[in-house]
Write a structure and sequence with these properties.
Length: about 500
């Protein structure tokens, strides 16, 4: 919890990116809407920081969480005292005036203190370098001589064996020289920030790259929420970033505004607005017939959920490798027959690859046609599982060859629904075909693939009741993905 009047590393970084986000952070932090992905990455970073401590044995944990100034001050004093005695500190905090900065490891040496910050990443970014520059500034304010400033990230080439080998998994990257270039800038920013926090004015919302960068700004809903649940500039696809930012700045956001200013858009995007207004569905009969004639029965609808974690969790996997933990499969044996559903959701922490491989080899009927939406992940996972498990290799390889992509029908504009406003996602297409059914994507805690992955990885941090609710949400979400493909196929069949 932020302490009123205290400037943190987080507030500093926000200030350098968007003054409005810094104002929210300082005065209205409750307006933040953190995505499940961001929450999960924070937990993963904590896990990595615990592993990083093993690289520097013999230190002491100070702790950096404080909800009042006195506690924060005491933690900072303890950090300084240990460092001055030559003791390594884990999870420490420094405070000078009202500027505070946390770090993961600090190792004193004859030449000064070496600071390390752990990140859930495989490479440094400019943002991380800014954070280190702020840490150097705060350390200087505390009269600490900084020797080195480094990031600790995971090595993407590391492969997990029987157990984690910290020295092989974690990579220290010395960024001292790159950080030094920011020194003057940090001092100036900190001066401005000190007077900024004294005020209350809220700068206007300006749509720009900072709003959308990486996982998006957590104040996006607070800034633009009124536009997000209706067709607008925010839901229209095919507008390049620069045009979008300009249109927003000029107040051209609603569908009426966009219709009136269609001449400012590319002809293709302007056409999307026209098709939206007419509620039109465009069909390329030749291509659609070709696609449908390439399907056969038994017909399966398959969807995987997979996790990508900076911290490899299963033997033989690398950081950020895609590992399946769930699938949903609907099987229609003959045309006109009702689909039968099956699937699997891994238990918490379970390496389910073998179970998934064996179940799929048994459940997918021989020579079945398999439909996936954007078949890349499904083909990749089936191929990986086939490689890993020789007993089912032939069956899974055959299944992989029989995957057809229903998403291509929309990616290639073979069928175009005017209401989609250019989006080709499964959820949007389903919403165009069955608005009531698509409401299922809104309920529950899992709304997209990123939510599914984060939810699965967050299970160990939940209460038993919450776990049960979230596992049910995962099951229903994945099932809805394959059900929606069935509904979409029925709809496009009627259009030939
Ligand atoms: S959404 Fe954009 S304008 Fe709003 S606070 Fe975040 S970065 Fe600033």
């Amino acid at each position: 919890m932020a302490i009123k009047g205290v400037i943190t590393k987080r507030l500093y970084v926000k200030f350098t990116r968007c003054r409005r986000s810094a104002r929210y952070e300082a005065n209205q932090p409750e307006a933040a809407k953190l995505s499940l992905t961001v929450i999960q990455r924070k937990e993963e970073t904590r896990e990595l920081a615990r592993l990083a401590a093993a690289l520097f044995p013999g230190g002491e944990v100070v702790g950096s969480r404080a909800d009042d100034f006195a506690v924060l001050n005491a933690l900072s004093d303890r950090t300084k005292e240990l460092l001055s005695r030559g003791t390594t500190v884990y999870d420490g905090v420094l405070l000078t005036r009202n500027f505070s900065c946390v770090f993961d490891v600090a190792v004193p040496s004859d030449d000064g203190v070496n600071f390390y910050v752990v990140k859930c990443a495989t490479a440094p970014s400019e943002n991380y370098i800014r954070e280190l520059a702020y840490l150097a500034h705060v350390a200087k304010g505390c009269d600490i001589k900084v020797c080195k400033l480094s990031l600790i990230v995971t090595d993407p080439h590391y492969t997990l064996g029987k157990q984690i080998k910290e020295s092989a998994l974690l990579r220290k990257i010395d960024l001292t020289k790159r950080v030094a270039r920011y020194a003057d800038k940090v001092a100036k920013n900190c001066e401005e920030l000190a007077s900024f926090v004294q005020k209350n004015d809220m700068p206007p919302a300006e749509l720009c790259a900072n709003c959308e960068r990486q996982f998006g700004c957590e104040y996006f809903n607070a800034c633009f929420g009124k536009w997000l649940d209706k067709p607008s500039l925010f839901t229209l696809h095919g507008v390049d970033s620069a045009t979008r930012y300009r249109l927003f700045a000029e107040g051209k956001v609603s569908m009426d505004d966009l219709r009136e200013n269609a001449h400012l858009l590319k002809p293709r995007t302007a056409a999307l607005i026209k098709l939206y207004g007419e509620n039109a569905v465009k069909v390329d009969q030749k291509d659609l017939k070709k696609f449908l004639s390439g399907l056969w029965y038994p017909l399966c609808f398959l969807d995987f959920e997979s996790l990508q974690s900076a911290l490899p969790r299963y033997r033989g996997t690398r950081p950020l490798e895609s590992v399946p933990f769930q699938y949903s499969l609907h099987i229609v044996q003959k045309e006109g027959e009702a689909p039968v559903h099956t699937g699997y959701l891994a238990k918490e922490g379970e390496d389910a690859r073998e179970i998934i491989a064996k179940r799929l080899a048994e459940e997918i009927p021989q020579n079945a046609c398999i439909l996936a939406f954007g078949k890349f992940l499904e083909c990749k996972v089936l191929g990986q599982l086939a490689q890993m498990f020789p007993d089912v290799r032939a069956k899974l390889s055959a299944a992989r060859n029989n995957v057809r992509d229903i998403g291509a029908v929309f990616a290639n504009d073979t069928v175009y629904y005017g209401q989609s406003l250019g989006s080709r996602s499964l959820k949007t297409i389903y919403r165009c075909v069955d608005p009531d059914g698509a409401h299922g994507y809104e309920v529950g805690a899992v709304h997209n693939g990123a939510d599914a992955m984060a939810t699965y990885l967050l299970l160990p941090y939940m209460s038993e009741k919450e776990k049960e609710e979230r596992r049910n949400a995962l099951w229903e979400y994945c099932k809805l993905d394959t059900l929606s493909m069935i509904t979409i196929l029925e709809d496009i069949k009627k259009r030939v």
